[in-house]
Amino acid sequence: MLNSDQLEKLKKAGRVSAEARDLGLSMVAEGVKLFDVAEEVESYIKSHGCKLAFPCNISINEVAAHYTPSPDDKSVFDFGDVVKVDCGAHIDGFVGDTAGTVEVGSNRFRDLIEASKDARDSVMEFIGEGCVINEIGKVVDMTIRSRGFVPIRNLTGHEIQPYNLHAGLAIPNYDDGNTDKLQAGMIIACEPFATNGEGLIESGRPGNICRLVRADKPLKEPALQEFLDYIKEEFSTFPFCARSCDWPKANLLLNKLVRQGVASSYAILNEVKGGCVTQSEHTVYIAGNKGEITTIY
Q1: Residue 103: pLDDT band with limits 50, 70, 90
Q2: Is there a catalytic annotation at residue 135?
C-alpha cells in the first residue's frame, strides 16, 4: 500500500494528466497541427508540477497507438478524423496514464467512440481488490460488442509501478482466462480499444517515441554522451521523444543513439484491416473493494 505522501503524488499526477488530456481533446479541430496539440499537452503537464511519463500520443483513425509528432511535423487534423489523445504525467515515478477519443467535425463514429468509453466506465464500476483479471476483460468485450464492434485483443491495459509504466499484470480487453486477482496497493491502467476492423493490431514503421535500452554504453562522442546524460536525468526509465527534449539538435542526436543501439524506437501500431480504432483510459489505485480513479476530476 502507498503511504500518504506517495498517494498524494499519485493523485496529483492523475489529476494533471486528466486535465492535460481534456485540454488536448478540446484543441482537436480541422486544420490544427498535431504538433501544437502535443506541445500544449506536454507544456501543461510540466507547468503543473509534473514530469512526462511518456510523450503525448496522437493516433488517428486506424493507428491505435505510439504516434507522436516529430519537431518538423506539419500534419493537421482533417474533417472526419478519429483522434486518440493519450498522455501521462508523473511525480517521483508515480504515474497518471489516461486517454480519450474525439471525432473531427462529424458524428460518423460516435457509437465507436462511445463503445470504448462505455467499456472503460463499466470496469470502473466494479474494479477493486480481489477483482479477477479475466472478468475485467469479459466486461470490456461484452460492452464493446453490445454496440456492434470488437475490442483490440492484442492491446491491453497494464499494471503501473514507480518508474515502470508497463509492469507486472496485463489487463486484457477480452476474457483471456487469467484468474489472478487484483491486490490492494496495485496501480492499474484500464484502457479498452474498440474497432470496426478485425480486432488486432500489427507493428508498422518505427515511430518517434523511444526508450533507452543500453543506457550505460560508453559513447565516444562527448556531445552525444552529454545528451544521453540529460535524457537519463530528465526522463529516467520512461519513454521520450526528440520533441520533448529541451536540447539543441535533439532529433539528430536521438537518431544517433538509436543507430548505436543505446535507444530503441517504438513501432507505430495499426489495425490489421485498417479499421478505425477508439481508446479510453483511466488509472486506478486499488485501495479496497472499490478502486480509486486518479485520472478524473
Answers
A1: very high
A2: no
